[in-house]
Amino acid sequence: MNNSTSTVGIREYVATMLLIIGVKLSDSTPALYFDSLKSAAWMGPLIGGIITTIPLYFFIKVLSLYESKNLHDLNILLFGKYIGFLFSFIFWVYGSIVISVDTRSYVDIIATLYFVKTPTIVIFIALMVACAYTAKKGIQNLTSMSWIILSYVKITLFLALLLTLKDANTFAIFPLWGPGIKKVVTESAFKTSLYGDFLFMGLIFPFFTSKKVFSKGSWLALTFLTVEMTIAFVLYLFMFDYGPASLLTYPFHEVIRYISIGDFLTSLDTFFFPFWLVASLMRFSIYLYLNALLLGNLFKIKQFEYLIPILASVFLILGMIPETPSFTIFKLRDPLYELFSPVFIVFPLLLWGMAKLKGDFKNEPKKNNA
Questions:
Q1: What is the pLDDT of residues 80-100, one digit of tens each?
Q2: Cα maximum dimension of the chain
Q3: Is 5 part of any domain?
Q4: Under a CB-based contact definition with an 8 Å cutoff, are residues 173 and 231 in contact?
Q5: Across the strands, what pairs with 265?
Q6: Cα radius of gyration rounded to whole Å, the chain
Q7: How many domains does the chain have?
Q8: Considering only Cβ atoms within 10 Å of each terminal Cβ, which end of the chain, N or C, has fewer?
Q9: Residue 302, SS3?
Q10: What is the pLDDT of residues 216-267, one digit of tens each?
Q11: Against a cut of 0.90, is the pTM above it?
Q12: Is the residue at 235 inside a domain?
């Protein structure tokens, strides 16, 4: 794996995962959990993180076995030319829908909370142009930029959540199991795709400086994200209680609009907004890059970077279709989570099973010693 394309180290990879998954705290994702899990919503990302360890373990095992292969290559190698192509194409379609839906969701945040007089289409175009421009810089620059901005983003997030403690209502955590243990576990399992980006990062596996980068980096990132998500959900619960929290489409932005430091520092949302915007930009830039990379793999397009502006334009058009975005996008995101969660859990096990049937694991010690 040590070749000219192996450019992503562990700190860049971990930073990338902490940004693209961590920024979901700021959109409608928490509201989806509060809507179904009530006062036990904070258990959702915790249980989901624990469940994720299973598919992630098997995914790492398979990727480490085929060191020079990415996710699409594995599909072709293990399932055959046609079935493997179909799996990759389905992943591409799903990723395209997620980008269209989530970018419109973030545009809605900007338009309704910060730039109320600016036409939605103008904000959407500006976002997609910025994402396309950033995505074309390549995976090395994208991951390096993620590392550079990570500390600023996480410090501001920590500060925002810390300031909510002065108004915390700790009794809001009761009843502890919310709607019941069975529903909490079931709903959490069907939202495990919260961490599904780990699967798509398999597309850049050959770019890592060593196979240990993906292994160690994934475990570090998953541990940090599980703790971060759980704490953030607890603080949302303390701040709003589960009833109001389930009605707030964007709890994080309501938090930063509400908090203040004494009587002299108010309207702190203008301070936090730029850091959130940069993190969101990085998330969708990386999504665009991965989407173009997968499409290039599917149709053997070597210069896949040229697809990025075209895809950005397509996602812009698709994202503008919903007429009532706040309601429609919220309703779309829940089935997307529930649809992909079983795939995220089962697919790595399926990859591992196919590799086992082919007998490739018998050669693993020889490969490692070579």
A1: 999 999 999 999 999 999 999
A2: 68
A3: no
A4: no
A5: 261
A6: 21
A7: 1
A8: C
A9: coil
A10: 999 999 999 999 999 999 999 999 998 888 888 888 988 888 776 665 556 6
A11: yes
A12: yes
As a whole number of angstroms, the distance between CA 282 and CA 265 comes to: 29
Residue 153 is assigned to a structural domain of this protein: yes
Cβ atoms of 103 and 315 within 8 Å: the answer is yes
With beta carbons less than 8 A apart as the criterion, state whether 295 and 92 touch.
yes
Beta bridge partners of 8: 208
- What is the arithmetic mean of pLDDT over 274-281? 95
Interior/surface letters 268-296, b for 16+ CB within 10 angstroms, e for the rest: bbeebbebbbbbbbbbbbbbbbbbbbbbb
Tell me which residue range forms the domain holding 140.
Answer: 13-365
- The 8-class DSSP code of residue 195 comes to G
CATH number at residue 251: 1.20.1740.10
Cβ atoms within 10 Å, residue 81: 10
Tokens encoding 199? 């699967």
Report the distance separating Cα 119 and Cα 115, nearest Å. 9
pLDDT greater at residue 346 or residue 264 = 346
User: Is residue 6 in some structural domain?
Assistant: no
pLDDT at residue 17 greater than cutoff 60: yes
Comparing 75-89, 156-170, 316-330, which segment has the lowest mean pLDDT? 316-330
Q: How far apart are CA 73 and CA 76, in angstroms?
A: 5
131 has pLDDT over 80: yes
Higher pLDDT, 245 or 357: 357
- Inter-CA distances, 228 with 22, 235, 303, Å: 8, 11, 37
With 90 as the cut, is the pLDDT of residue 300 above it?
yes
CA distance readout (Å), 105 to 205, 291, 312: 29, 19, 15
Judged by DSSP in three states, 305 sits in helix
Q: If we measure between CA atoms, which residue out of 216, 248, 292 comes closest to residue 60? A: 216
